[in-house]
Amino acid sequence: MGRLEGYRAVVTGAASGIGRAVLRRYIVEGAKVVAVVRSETERAALLAEGAAVVAGDVALYDTAARAVSAAVTQFGGLDAYVANAGLWDFHKRVEKQSPEELAAAFAEIFGVNLLGPLYGARAALAQLRESRGCVIVTGSNAAFLAGGGGALYTASKFALRGLVMQLAREFAPEVRVNGVAPGATDTALSGPASLGQGTRAMNADPARMKTMAEHMLLGRVATPEDHTSLYVLLASRQESAYVTGAMLLSDGGLTISV
Ligand SMILES: NC(=O)c1ccc[n+]([C@@H]2O[C@H](COP(=O)([O-])OP(=O)(O)OC[C@H]3O[C@@H](n4cnc5c(N)ncnc54)[C@H](O)[C@@H]3O)[C@@H](O)[C@H]2O)c1
């Protein structure tokens, strides 16, 4: 019997990387999942994985509302909203961005990394109160330390950690709110289109990945699958009944060793 038998979850950013690995693991553990993807073209692949699929921009409230609604109509409710979609900034320095670029990139990065989870939590709250469910966000080592990205990415992930703490206060005692904070992970994480990073992939640069691996106490970057047990743990009422407001590091020791 799976650890999430009977659970119903929404996972955003589910077409790739960490979100795809969480989606697969949740299904293996017995959960029914609504996958939120960015574009219609990603829909077919996700349907084949056995998930329900909603396509849309997580920076729009309507996307979260449609995802929650799909969980209710197709699965009868919702137990976990996993706000995982994210954009990086490839360490772009502030001085290298014009004021106009800063404004546009701020809107894109904070729209996906912060407003997306906030909208998801808001849209899911009534259902989660009913099921005594939870919100799980994907944070980052950049939610604890400078240097995991540029100013916009780091600020967005620090703000996301604050959001987790505040929502844990506001949603208690019915709904737990937590996060997983991965360190460097082998994915094609991209950045804002306004900085020309929309189709750039973090793991396309072997030198970058090698440098990242050298910073990890465990001597390698993570695979997306390395993090998935923590998402199972945090979703499970039995396994993390007393955990709320936490951001669990899954960073190969990076944060304690720099
Ligand atoms: N890869 C790493 O090293 C690393 C480290 C720490 C944290 N993270 C975080 O992990 C999360 C997942 O990223 P990943 O590494 O798996 O990369 P990824 O690019 O594979 O996954 C991010 C997903 O978010 C989706 N997305 C982006 N903008 C969107 C939008 N506007 N609307 C809907 N979906 C959108 C993308 O389509 C993609 O599927 C992100 O929050 C990222 O910040 C990644």
Query: Judging from the principal axes of the Cα atoms, what is the shape?
Result: globular
Q: How far from one another are the termini?
A: 41 Å
Which whole number gives the mean pLDDT? Answer: 97
Indicate the CATH class: Alpha Beta
Rg, nearest Å: 17 Å
What class would the helix/strand composition place it in? alpha/beta
CATH architecture title: 3-Layer(aba) Sandwich
Fraction in helix: 40-55%
Strand content: 5-15%
| Oligomerization status of the protein chains | single chain
Number of strands: 7
Strand order of the largest sheet: 3-2-1-4-5-6-7
CATH-defined superfamily: NAD(P)-binding Rossmann-like Domain
Bound molecules: nicotinamide-adenine-dinucleotide
The string of secondary-structure elements, in order, is EHEHEHEHEHEHHEH
The total count of helices amounts to 8
What does this structure look like?
The chain is an alpha/beta fold and 258 residues long. It has a single domain, classed as Rossmann fold (3-Layer(aba) Sandwich). It has 8 helices and 7 strands. Strands 3-2-1-4-5-6-7 form a 7-stranded parallel β-sheet, with helices on both faces. Helix 5 links the parallel strand 5 (134-138) and strand 6. Helix 3 runs parallel beside helix 4. The longest helix is centred in the middle third of the chain and has 33 residues, at 99-131. The radius of gyration is 17 Å and the shape is globular.
